[in-house]
Give the backbone structure.
Amino acid sequence: MKGGRTQHTFSPPVMEARRWIAGKEFPAERPLINVSQAAPMDPPPEALRAHIAETALTVPEAHLYGPVLGLPALRAELASRWTAKYGGQISSGQVAITSGCNQAFAAAVSAIAAEGDEVILPTPWYFNHKMWLDMQGVTAVALETNAALLPNIETAQSLITDKTRAIALVTPNNPAGVEYPSELVRAFFDLAREHGLKLIVDETYRDFDSRTGAPHPLFADPDWAETLIHLYSFSKAYRLTGHRIGAVITGAPLLAELEKFLDTVTICPNQLAQHAALWGMQNLDGWLAAERLKVLDRRTAIKECFPTLEARGWQLLGLGAYFAYLKHPFELSSLELAQKLVDEAHVLALPGIMFHPAGSNRGETEIRLAFANVNADQIATLFDRLEAYRPIS
């Protein structure tokens, strides 16, 4: 029997990694340290949970279909906050709410690209972006990054063809954690505009950027809406991962095309999630600021612990948001290493091959640590285990 579109891509990496620990038990004195998934594992703060419960009990329309592009109040709040954060002018008519940031990317690509078209992705890339392009018959053109894991404008320009429809950036980056400099993001915007392309900027981890102020100046450009497709996730900010709530900000004409996709796939975003996101933005600024500081403290802990690994030949390639991206010193492949670490060090991490094109030698030596759910003491233990690790042949 012939297969469908899904057979054109690989298995979900996080689900694949979970199979490595299925049925295995780890002793209490040496528990598994899971640094495989970049999502908060704690529930939303109690006040937000109480608001969700109250909404479920007292707002009847929260259980019905809502507007395809999202609640007007939430769209307006996001537009107002982003205008204040980034400068320029953003209207609610340029905002759509989606069922998670992955859906925002899927909707955007569906609106701008057809089978046989191309989208440029810097590597190491976010694997779900690659998977969606595969399933749509859109070619993911790998843009290899430099030693600092930053994409190069000249290299990107050399990859543009008459089939190119967009360049997609993730900053702070998943999987590498790197925060793209403001001037680099602007340069990619100018490159995209020059060639009539869209620039997709996924800022899922924006709330955990180490920098203050606007991370880029794109919204200050009076014609930003003709080129920019901005993606955001409420899930990381307010621990709403299971509620699936994200956003896309772009020109109103393109949103009309996205609306066709969103209406067909989900009809409307989760209503309770939208009320939760709105309440979170209006009431949890202080809480979110404290969460950011926790993430930055973990980032500092990794910097402080890393010299012991460096002495063993490891390299820290990228660090930021939820991620540390490392180069390992062993002869075995990153996939072999990741699988061995489960049984021999009780560490679950993702290998670099999951973030590169098939056959990339670069991915064989890299590994990602997602540290959102490990505290400073656990980070110290993690690095002790990695420092002491020697592969068992």
Observations:
- The longest helix spans residues 285-310.
- The mean pLDDT is 96.
- The longest strand covers residues 164-170.
- The chain has two domains: 5-43+287-388, 63-283.
